[in-house]
Amino acid sequence: MNEEVLIPIESIIIEDRARTELGDLESLQRSIKERGLFNAIIVSKKDNTLVAGFRRLTCHKNLGLKQIKAKYMEDLSPLMMKVIEREENFHKELEWDEKAKIRAEIHGLLQQEHGAAVKGHKSKGWSLEDSADYLGVSVGTVSQDISLIESMKALPKIKEFGSKKQALKSLNKIKEMAILTELARRDKEEGFALTKSTDPYVLVQADSVKHIYENIDTETIDMTIFDPPWGIGADDIANARGLRGEKTFYDDSEETAKDLANKLLPELYRVMKPDSHMYMFIGFQFGTYYINLLQNQVPIFDKSGVIVDYALLDPDRKWKFEVRQMPLMWIKEGGGYTDFDYKFMPRYEAILFCYKGRRPLNYVSSDVFIKNRPLSTERVHPQQKSLELIKDFIKLSSHPNEIVLDPTCGSGVTIVASTLLGRRSIGIEDDAEQILKARSWIQGFKFEEENDE
After folding, report:
1. Angle, nearest 10°, between helix axes 96-114 and 164-190?
2. DSSP letter for each residue of 393-404
3. 191 burial type by CB count under 10 A (0-12 exposed, 13-18 middle, 19+ buried)
4. Three-state DSSP class for 326?
């Protein structure tokens, strides 16, 4: 460590400095008053011209002190070189990651010089608060910079973002997805079996009917989220507007949607455990059709058109769900896209609550769920559901370590929600391109540019 000397403040020469904004000096002054100066200023040995430490010197003057600890500019330690580097570069146009790197390095070197503070213990070690005072920024800024620089070692792409705010948004997503990896590790260590796998989730590109029939055993699924095509008509959708106002096309015919439901629902019933729940998203205009299909019933009308009874839709059928007659409602923050020149913009989606047996809900809940949709810049599927909505359904109808099945998983939101809540999950999607997007999002490796709002 270089030798420190006490020199008269009045002997220090201050040349014109580009830095005029000194930031908040109050906390630094308080630290100097209570504990003294941790880090000496740097002066030229020739004539005591100030090299680095203008904020520290200003605080001493404000406190009425006559002397200050100083080091002479010769044989500088790495710490002092970084201090001078920062003082020189503070006025320059630096990229956000360069500023973050300098702050993080100075914090590390200051801890090497003075020892790291131990949380919960009184000591003279160097803390985040000390670095914040020293650098003239908030504690949060220093903490964020250190976190970003550490993350860049493993994920260099973070520095490609145009601003620190964008990078922090991306890092928060990655940290959330890191929970998936940690749960995967725990799941394997504790030996939990996910049907025929030890992973906390399985994402499969396959025909869902065929895959479930061949790979999922009877009565092994604790809960199902089923979001099939709505069947609102290819012609209507062809005239709809997309997420950014452009025309879009989506293969979603009524025939295709109903055919999938008729083939898949028997398999879903087979693999679900007794006393389990299923949430089925539907086009509202087909609510009666799906309720009758699920319950294996067909209405009998009298001459005036009033329903007087029900008959079995298929007398030989072995499966039957019970269904809440009034759908659950997901209310969104604003209207969804449609041909808005001539049609109302829908702001809700309907979900059928189906059950095999009589499993109770885990807590009391309204049948209306008000949740924002994912931002258009964050979606990996045009019909991606709200993560918070799916988490609510999972919390209502399952317990930790139970298995959630999504046979038309699209974006993979059910897998993310399940794993974040400590459930295991199976997602099946037949579209090859979509499965790649879902897998990328789930694994946290999707770096998508966002607007810096």
Report:
1. 60
2. HHHHH--TT-EE
3. exposed
4. coil
pLDDT in tens, 190-227: 444 455 454 678 888 889 999 999 989 999 999 999 99
Homologous superfamily (CATH) for 192-442: Vaccinia Virus protein VP39 (3.40.50.150)
Q: β-strand 272-282 against 67-72: which pairing, if any?
A: unpaired
Is residue 395 over pLDDT 90? yes
| Eight-class DSSP state of 353 | E
Torsion of CA 193, 387, 343, 252, to 10 degrees: -20
Cβ within 8 Å of residue 26, ≥6 positions away: none
Alpha-carbon distance of 410 to 428, in angstroms, equals 8
Distance CA 111, CA 45 (A): 26
Q: Dump the DSSP string for 76-111.
A: --HHHHHHHHHHHHTTS---HHHHHHHHHHHHHHHH
Give the SS3 label for residue 241: strand
DSSP-assigned beta bridge partners for residue 307: 301
CA atoms of 202 and 424, how far apart (whole Å) = 8
Output the average pLDDT for the chain: 78
What value does the CA radius of gyration of the chain take, rounded to a whole number of Å?
31
Residue extents of the structural domains in the chain? 5-158, 192-442
Give helix 78-89 / helix 96-114 axis angle, nearest 10°: 150
- How does strand 221-226 pair with strand 272-282? parallel
Tokens representing 366? 């309204």
Please state, in angstroms and rounded to a whole number, the distance separating the CA atoms of residues 199 and 187: 7
Long-range contacts of 44-52 (CB under 8 A, 24+ apart): 44/72, 44/73, 45/72, 45/73, 45/74, 47/13, 48/7, 48/11, 48/12, 48/13, 49/12, 49/13, 49/14, 49/15, 50/12, 50/13, 50/14, 50/15, 51/84, 51/87, 52/80, 52/83, 52/84, 52/87
For the chain, the first-to-last Cα distance in angstroms comes to 46
